[in-house]
Amino acid sequence: TQLLEQSPQFLSIQEGENLTVYCNSSSVFSSLQWYRQEPGEGPVLLVTVVTGGEVKKLKRLTFQFGDARKDSSLHITAAQPGDTGLYLCAGTGSGNTGKLIFGQGTTLQVKP
Amino acid sequence: GAVVSQHPSWVICKSGTSVKIECRSLDFQATTMFWYRQFPKQSLMLMATSNEGSKATYEQGVEKDKFLINHASLTLSTLTVTSAHPEDSSFYICSARETSGTGELFFGEGSRLTVL
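Structure tokens for the assembled complex are given below, as produced in the milestone run.
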């Protein structure tokens, strides 16, 4: 069974601070996705990383895929209250089903 | 962009009744859809993979007789929670994988089930 360990699970910081969320596994994933979810809504895709060592930037968010494609990180620079939400990493499982396996999620609170 | 719609978005029912939740891909075909369950402040837990025209594949620990899945067309999958009990109260989310093109996965808005 492929598992994704996401940390930290809860994070409360002040506006302007930087933070990093980690997503680790002992398994290799063909791709990793990062989602953000607001309460009462479905998750919204932020980015997909496919190539080992890949780095993608989305404004103040930087996503990195590990060289071995077993881990990923999300770094937010100068966090703002609008960044508050649940961040989820998810990996496409092995085999032909293509099912998405989610990490435990990181609840981020950015205080003004 | 592609849209996946869930209905109802929220439902309240009495214990012992059955509730059906629909997941529709509005502008694309989806051979495969996935059903997730999410408890408050927790991540999404995959329940089953819904395959058009065939039986769903359930994850370990998920009762297939309790959570009936039907994927009768390329744009519709349904999840029926049978004989619902308060512990079935949860947020249920579906996702649909585009059959053609990139095979990208799109999520529905979720359905909040409360069993009294």
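Residues 30 and 98 of chain B are 5 Å apart (CA to CA). The mean pLDDT of chain B is 92. Further analysis is deferred to the final report.
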